[in-house]
Each structure stands twice: as C-alpha cells, then as structure tokens.
Write a structure and sequence with these properties.
The chain has four helices and ten strands. It is an alpha+beta fold and 247 residues long. Helix 2 runs antiparallel to helix 4. It is globular, with a radius of gyration of 20 Å. The two termini are 29 Å apart.
C-alpha cells in the first residue's frame, strides 16, 4: 500500500488536511541536525565532465535509449504525503510519500519502507491495563521487538517532545558505532505514554560510501521533523488493537 502525495489542501478520503509537521518545521529539525554533528552541508559535490571529449564521426542512426534516473537517496526530493492508519487511529506524514511502501495489515506494527534510501519506520499505539508511563511503554515495546538502544551507540541527542499531543514522549537520535569505512547506521526512537495509551516510533536508515554521514543526517532529519513531528492521533480513545502477549 502506498500513501498518496498531497496535491491540494482539500480533504480527501482516508487523508486529512495538511499535517502539523509544516507548522513544527524548524522545531525538531535543528535538534536532528545538531544530533548528527551538523552533517547537513549546504551543497553536494558535483562530478565534472571532461572539458574536451573526442567528437564522434557521425551521430548514431538511432539515439540510444536513456536509462531511467536513479532513485533518490534522500527523503527530501519527493512530495509530502500522509498515511492514515485506521488500525492504530493515527495520521503519519511521510516525506517522498509515493516512494514509501506501507504495511498496515495483520502485523503488530505499522511498517513504512523507503527502499531507495534504506530507511524504515515502525509505528504503533496500544493500550495498557494500568497507567501507561513512558518507561513502561518503552519496556513493553522492547519486549515485543529488538529495537535500537541509545546506550549501544554514539547517541547525540535525547529530548522530550509533545508528540503525539499530550503524551510524555522522549526521542533519542543517534548513530551506531562502526569501524572506519563501514556502512553507517542511524536511528531515531521515541516512546510516550498518556493515560492508558502507549506510543512507539522507530526510524532506522543506513548509508555507505564517502557521503554516508551526510545522507544519514539528512534522512534522520527528515523523518524526525516530518514524520515524528507531524504525527497525530485521530481519536483520543485507544485503538481497538489487542495487546500482544509477553514472549
């Protein structure tokens, strides 16, 4: 399932109006940039063609078929869209939305994958029997799935945010420790609680090569600013998704 990119502010079936991520732009993005050591340069290096290429004797009879452009390796090149999850009662803004594949069926998590940038999102809400503190929600989510741990990485920032609105949520953004020359893995994890309702958001991305640090920084900044910063709950009541049994 692919979310539709937004083309006009009018409300369409299954999608709401422009998300709050637009209003919050500039609030979470500086933190994401600072978290990754300012790895967002103003411009990328350009590859220059040779100044004097030998001329061809004659043009070919049939022009060669042009190869399709490579998919974008960042998340800021496509249109912003929004996915509505009826199962978890939430609205999830997505950068380059048409390139995201969203799986929101029988699995315990909403999974959104952007294959071109090696970026994935895990999102879910659920209800607890007792008070859903942030610590209890994080502990429960980690029992269900192996998630990135800030204490096992070069974590750059951890801060409290009001996402979803009214939740006690903390987001941690970091880069996993890796030897020189190895691919770089970055992540952003957020857990929150309100009343008896829990929330979890996990973003992971990987890049290799000389531009790996820049790409990881740009991708995490995009998902933290847009997807996490603009996420909203549709209803105040907890979704009708049964709590998973303990392993």
């Amino acid at each position: 399932m692919r979310p539709e990119a937004r083309r006009e502010p009018a409300e369409t079936p299954g999608h709401a109006r422009r998300p709050a991520a637009r209003a919050k732009r500039g609030v979470l993005l500086p933190a994401a940039r600072a978290a990754l050591g300012g790895l967002l340069p103003a411009a990328a290096l350009l590859a220059l063609l040779p100044a004097c290429a030998p001329a061809l004797a004659a043009p070919p009879a049939t022009p060669p078929r042009l190869a399709p452009p490579p998919p974008p390796s960042t998340l800021g090149d496509g249109e912003l869209g929004e996915y509505r999850s009826e199962r978890f009662d939430l609205l999830l803004p997505l950068p380059d939305a048409r390139s995201f594949r969203v799986e929101d069926g029988e699995g315990p998590w909403l999974v959104a994958t952007h294959a071109a940038s090696s970026t994935s999102l895990l999102v879910r809400t659920w209800r607890e029997d007792g008070r859903a503190s942030r610590a209890a929600c994080e502990a429960r989510a980690r029992l269900w799935r192996d998630l990135p741990r800030p204490d096992q990485s070069l974590t750059a920032v951890e801060r409290r945010i009001d996402v979803p609105e009214g939740f006690d949520t903390v987001v941690a953004i970091g880069v996993a420790d890796a030897p020189p020359g190895a691919p770089i893995d970055g992540f952003a994890v957020a857990f929150g609680g309100s009343g008896r309702r829990c929330f979890a958001f996990v973003a992971e991305t990987r890049a290799a090569g000389p531009s790996a640090e820049r790409l990881v920084g740009e991708r995490l900044a995009a998902v933290v600013e847009i997807s996490l910063g603009g996420l909203r709950l549709v209803r105040e009541t907890a979704p009708a998704v049964p709590r998973e049994p303990l392993p």
